[in-house]
Amino acid sequence: MRAAVLVLTGHLAAAMAANITCAEGLYMLCGRPSGAPAISPNVTLYGPDNTTGVGFVADKIAAQIPGSIVAGIEYPASDPDPDNGPFNLTTYYLSENQGVQATMNQVTAYHAACPNSQIALIGFSQGAQIIADALCGGIGPDVIPGAKFNSSVPLPVSLIESSVLAIALIADPTHVANTTYDVGNSTNNGVIPRANTTVCAAYSDRMQSYCEANDFFCDSGNSTAIHLAEANTFEDQVVQFVVNRWTNYTASKSGSSQSSSLPSPTPSSTTKPNAANRGLSVSQTTLWSSAGILMAALAVLG
């Protein structure tokens, strides 16, 4: 089964590569949260299609790295609890599984089309989980009884090391506390904790997992408000992390020990409120899907 998945990924990636435009700067692939619409309500405010809820962070990075492209992972990002209706765990894991496959396909396709270009992966909530699973391996069907998450083999380490410059996971439900790539003051595992972080740890030089204490989902806390604000809470840190990675990469590539002429990212009192509004306004549906996951887990665990 695993081999079949990898073969399928290769065929799809090859077909997709023909329609890809290579970025002169950084290619940023975003994973949107549960329930965020695939069609952007406003590209200027929320980012391109398939990035709603996190694309505004990538846009801020692109403003500092000329020639960058912001794109989204094309997956359902399904809300398993629409309109506060009955929670459907199946809806979530089917969406997440599709997201993992889509992430693998799109990263592989871009690498095939643009082998000399660099990728940044930025995901929020369910969007963070699909990226983590694609890079670190699927969490499998036994983490939460009844949730048939896949056990997919991760993308090849050689591909990630050569083409993926930065990985930012924001409020990942599979977060594991006290790893080498943790950022934030979280001390607890997420509601769908990853059993094995070995592959993730190998990417500590290029990956950061952002989680605030008491976040309902990445920290198994009791605050949904903290979760909804996570993309905004860590916005400036994510921007600085990715831009710094790019600056170091370009300096190394040019053989210069001097930093590039890109400006250092700093918090802006004029842009930060607008960014916060963008993130919060399009992330409300994340609350229902993630809350449903936790409640389902608690129900099973008693």
Task: Describe the 3D structure.
- The protein is an alpha/beta fold and 302 residues long.
- It has one domain (2-301): Alpha/Beta hydrolase fold, catalytic domain (Rossmann fold, 3-Layer(aba) Sandwich), CATH 3.40.50.1820.
- It is built from twelve helices and six strands.
- Strands 2-1-3-4-6-5 form a six-stranded parallel sheet, sandwiched between helices.
- Strand 5, helix 7 (198-201) and strand 6 form a beta-alpha-beta unit.
- Helix 1 (2-17) crosses helix 4, helix 3 (55-62) packs parallel to helix 10 and helix 4 (89-113) packs across helix 5 (126-136).
- The chain starts with a helix and ends with a helix.
- 52% of the residues are buried.
- Mean pLDDT is 84; it is low at 1-8, 257-277 and 280-302.
- Keywords: Disulfide bond, Hydrolase, Signal.
- Residues 251-273 have a biased composition (Low complexity).
- Residues 1-17 form the signal peptide.
